[in-house]
Structure formats: structure tokens, C-alpha cells
Amino acid sequence: MEFIGLVLGSFSLLLDPATLLYVIAGFLIGTVFAAIPGLTATLALALLLPLTYSLDLTTALMACASIYMAGMCGGSITAITINIPGAPSSMMTALDGYPMHQRGEGALALGHASLASMIGGSIGALLLICLAPFIAQASLLIQTTGKFSLLFFAIVIIVIAQRGNVLKAAVAACIGIMLATVGLDAMVPVPRFTFGLAELTAGIDLMPVIIGAFAISEILVQSGKLSQTHDIEKQARAVAKIRRRDFIPPLSSIRKIGLVCYVKSSLIGYAIGTLPGAGGSMGSFLSYVEEVRTSKEPETFGKGNPAGIAAAESANNSVCGGALVPMLTFGIPGDPITAIVLGVLVINGIQPGPQLMTDQAGLIAPMLAALLFSALVLIPLTLMILGPYYIRIVSIRKDVLYGTIAMLSVVGCYVATYSTFQMMVALFIGVLTYVMRKQGFPIATLLLGFILGPNLEEFLRRALTLSNGNPITFVTSPDSLFFVVLTAVFVYFLSIRAPMKNPVIAEQNDN
Description:
72% of the residues lie in helices and 1% in strands. Keywords: Membrane, Transmembrane, Transmembrane helix.
């Protein structure tokens, strides 16, 4: 209770105009970086890290928290408006957000995303404030075998969710895992599948895969369509009619989604966030599939169902609160952004650990207050102020829009990796995924396989090493057995008891 009191008292720091300015500026910068394909909130925080040296630690941590929250919700802007997720965690948002935008409901889709982000971010921050020590202890109960089973569970459910397209989804996931094996072996310092190219020794970076799979392939898809001037003019006239109240979801739509969806997805995202390395992508994947599983209209997902947006955005924003738990209590970053925040703490002589919440709670409380403030106030406020400008993206000429996106994507890839070779990799991945999309392969499963592949392999080999090669260890370890049973339950409900008529993740091949 004493720590909660400190957090509540820390809101008074936001009354200082200078502190409030840094928090708002951090949120806007994080939103811009998250919305531009190839640029992420992690990159924004890394580039702005030197500026924290000139700030006092409290203000620097509050700015970092606002950038973090903005990075999770900002990726939904381009995911909804042009079907190019600005961040990996926004992939699931694009599945239903872009179809809504094509129906002329782009403002409503952004409104649902903002509302869900606000709810998920607020719940995640509140849970972090209240339950951080307890959740941290629980997450430590998941050992090596359990971590493998968790990752396997994530891949299996996203594949079987492709009802009617499971084989292609499995192939796409395997291709993603294969791409992740390029480079140094996870256990032994031996290069694999480099084909004699020294540049591949370090492996394929995540950023080129994201940019290639979504930005480059989308540009290729759009370039294959005949653009018509009257369509552009029609879109421009529709944009002119957008009013700020159009971004407010009607109460009837919110009731149809249901409070359970928001809360359940937020809890899933928070729980996933407490697991180091899981990140917003897995949280949004799991919450989306869970919402489809429990929906009375599963066939509507992937076609513009607001519940899909609500589930994905609630989860990936609540991850913010969960990911800070292992970082603050054990010094284990939950994702790349918290790794940078950890660096800010260490640089300033603060060592995260079990005693941090008690001995130096006065330094941490303002950061958590800024996290909650960003979710509760800044997310809806920036949408109401800047929302019409987000929608105006569609009024830009297609050749100018996608040419600019191509340039920003390639430049962003270079800025993220400082490698011209990785830029070429992005182009290769873009062509590959373009061909796959034309053949009906779901690209989301490819990216999931690539993201989870390295940890999946590492935990599998470690578990088998510890058990002397005995696979029975995956059903004898309680934490692993839990996820094995959970996988079986999802397979039963998604594939056996109530098979869906249409794929959950409807790949937008002709968008």
C-alpha cells in the first residue's frame, strides 16, 4: 500500500510544465516512430538515450515510459489505414482494422484501437503497480521446459486458427523458423546456413523481415493494381467528411464487444509480458485467437470485426505493464524497450532487483505514474487531436504514398541495422512474401515463426540436454505439462469440437 501511495503522489510531478512537456513529447515521438514502418519505439528510445544524460533521472524515466506506451499503440495507425503494421504487435490489428477502413470505417477502427489501447494500457499499469512482486515470483516458476511448451503452444494455436488453410499456415510458420536458424548456432558458436556469406553469420535481423513481409510486399501488391483518379478523389472527399466525433465508438458497438473481451485480453497480455522475451506480438496473437475461440461469430474475424481490434490492442498495450515486472524486480528485460530502460537505470547507478521496489521506490513510482497517465490520458487525447490527420493518409496519391513508404522502409531498415546487406535481405523477404501472399499463404504465421523460432530451438535443446535426450520431460515438468494441456484444449476447441468455416487470419491478398 505504501508503494501505491507513492505512485499516486507522483502524479503531482506532472503539474510541473517542464516534466509534462517531456512526457507529452516522448509520447508523440514514440507514436511517430511506431507508425512509420521500419522505425520503432525501441529505435526512438535508443536515439534519444543520450538526451537522458541531461535530464534528472525521474524525468528521464517518465519520458521513457511514455515512449514505451506510445510505441505499442502507434503501430495501429498504419496497420489500419494502409495495412502496413508499424510494429510487430500491430499485425493482428491490421487483420480487422484494414477491412473496416476499406468499408469507410477507418475513423471508427482507430477509435476502437484507441479505446482498447487505453483500457489495456491502464489495466497493465495498474496490475504492475499492485501485483509486480507477486507476478515476478510466479513467472520464475516457468523453467526451460515450460518456456519451450509455451512457445510451441503459441505457434500451434496460430496455425490451427487458419481453419481451411492450416497446411499453408504450417508451411509459412516453418519458413519463418527456417529463416531464424540462419547464422550462429544457438548453443555452439558455429555458423549455419550462411552459404559462405560472412554477412549472414550474425543471422537475419528482425527488422528486415518485418519490413519485407509487410511494407515491401504490400507495396508490390498495390503496384500491381491500376490506380484510378476518381477513386482517389472519392477517398479524398470521404476524408473531408471525417469529424472528430467519428472516432468515438458507439456504445452499442462497445457493448457488443463486451467488457469481458477488454479485461480478458488485457490479462492475457499482462501475463505474457511478465515472461522475458515474449513481447507484445505473442500477447496480441494469443488474445486474438482466444477471442475468436469464444466468439459466437468466428467467421467474421479477419473481415472487419471490431472485437478483433479490441482483443489485439488491449493485449499488446497491457504488455507494457507486464514487461516491466521482470526488469524492475530481477533485472531481466521483458522486451527490447525495457532493455533500454534497464540501461538508463544502470547508467544512473540503480541496480534492479527484489529490493528496488522498497529501497528506491521513490524513483520508480513516477515512471509507473507516467505509464498510467500515457495510457489513460494521452492515448485518447492524441487520437482526438490528430486522428483526422491519420485518416488523411488515404487521400495522398498512391504512387506518392507508397513511394514514400518504400523509401522510409528501406532507410528505416538501414538505420535499425546499419547494414546494406540487411536492406537487400528486406527486399528479398518482400519478394518472397509477395509470392506467398499471391498463393494464399498467411504471412503473419511466417513472422511468428521467425520471432519465436530462436527461443523455441534454444529451449528445446536445453531441455533435452538437461534430461539426457528424454522427451518425457515435457510432460513430467508441471509448468511444461500445463502448456501441453492448454495446447490440447485449444486444438480440441478450434479444430475438433467447433471448427470454424473461415480462417481467423484472412490474408489481405487483394487489398
